[in-house]
Amino acid sequence: MLTELCNLFVVDRSRKVDTAAFLTRRRLFCRVFDDQKEEILPAAQAVVFPEFTVRCPASKSARFVAVSLNADDDVPTSEMHSIEPTHTGEQHFFSVCMAPLWGNAPKWLMLIEFIEYYLLQGAEHFIIYKQHVDELTMTVLNKYVQEGIVDVVEVNEATNCLKRHRCRHEMQLQDCVFRSRDRSKWVAMVDLDERISVNSSNTLKHYIRSVGEATFGELRFRCRWVLRYAEIPADPDAWRKEGARIPMAIWHNTSHVAPLNHTTKSIIRPEMVEGMGVHQVLRFTPPATVFLVPPEEAVVRHYRNVQGWGYFLKEAEGFGSFERTEVARDVIQPLQAHVFQEVDRLFPEESPMV
């Protein structure tokens, strides 16, 4: 019997495999194949650790890998997965990994705002994971892919997890840790509706440089919810008819800062992280440590749609009083200009019929 794979990476002279089943500490067998898909090594016993990860033996001839529950299971060629080549290009200083895009809610405008915001904050590259997206969102992704700014990673449909979306999110986080090693010094792990915001005139990249001491493997940011009371417009025409405003310029009702380690988000050093959770690093490579970012310096502004999150809203009210907050003018004005420009390029407004 085989178990599903997500992706494979060459790390520390071995193959680290992301598996699509939540089998932490489960015994599995690595199966290694050459370019002709012939098995070249005896099945090697491995243990899933950390989450979704097994370490397989290295071989210069290895081109494909599978993971099976038993050493003698047959492996169809369709279940042999190619190994990601070792990255040899230039290393970025600051990149962003986005949690998987899924569901039916419109995403095109939030996606443009997300990318343009983090570009203005100093990000150089993005890894965006997707499961299901509509045509408008795909148009946006393709534009940034063609410009070399974004890599898009397809999220495997298969999983044995009961909480399927949460499981895919956790898989994505592990994938990002391995995929980013040697490619980026620092990586933000955030969702589509999250903006890590510095409470000064400095960019996020500048802030990372100012606090990123050699032993810090994670900068951990506390959260404030900015309540969204409606979905974004379904398409650019509807957006223009509604006044053409970006989400960060519309929503201002903001929660008190959440307690320490409550729904935090992270910017990490990938080579210092072994296990990544949704809200914090689970395991560091010694001697790495975490820097708990004071909320007076920076926070996550989470533009949370209140629909379906009534229980979360009640919890957020327990943190303290809500207040009106606004993004600084020197951030929001250039961001709006960039978003308007990209929308007009991608989805030109049709001239009215005379």
Order of strands, widest sheet: 10-9-8-11-16-13-19
Total beta strands: 21
**Class by helix and strand content?**
alpha/beta
Global outline: globular
Q: Could you describe the largest sheet, including whether it forms a barrel? A: 7 strands, mixed
- The DSSP helix count reads 8
GO cellular component, one term: cytoplasm
EC number: 2.4.1.-
Keywords: Glycosyltransferase, Membrane, Transferase, Transmembrane, Transmembrane helix
Subcellular location: Membrane
What is shown here, in short?
The protein is 24% helix and 31% strand.
Map the helices and strands.
Elements: E1 5-11, E2 14-19, E3 27-33, E4 44-47, E5 53-56, E6 64-68, E7 81-82, E8 92-101, H1 108-120, E9 125-130, H2 135-146, E10 150-154, H3 164-180, E11 184-190, E12 194-198, H4 204-211, E13 216-221, E14 223-228, H5 236-241, H6 247-250, E15 253-254, E16 265-268, E17 273-276, E18 281-284, E19 289-292, E20 298-305, H7 310-317, E21 323-324, H8 329-346
Parallel strand pairs: 8-9, 8-11, 9-10, 13-19, 14-20
Antiparallel strand pairs: 1-2, 2-5, 3-4, 3-6, 6-7, 11-16, 12-20, 13-16, 15-21, 17-18
Helix pairs in contact: 1-2, 1-8
Pfam families: Glyco_transf_92
Organism: Ancylostoma ceylanicum
Subcellular location: Membrane
Describe what you observe in this structure.
It is a single chain. The chain has 354 residues and is an alpha/beta fold. The protein contains eight helices and 21 strands. The strands form six sheets. The chain has a seven-stranded mixed β-sheet with strand order 10-9-8-11-16-13-19, with helices on both faces. The termini are far apart. The model is unreliable at 1-5 and 10-15 (pLDDT under 50). Its main location: membrane. This is Glycosyltransferase family 92 protein. Belongs to the glycosyltransferase 92 family.
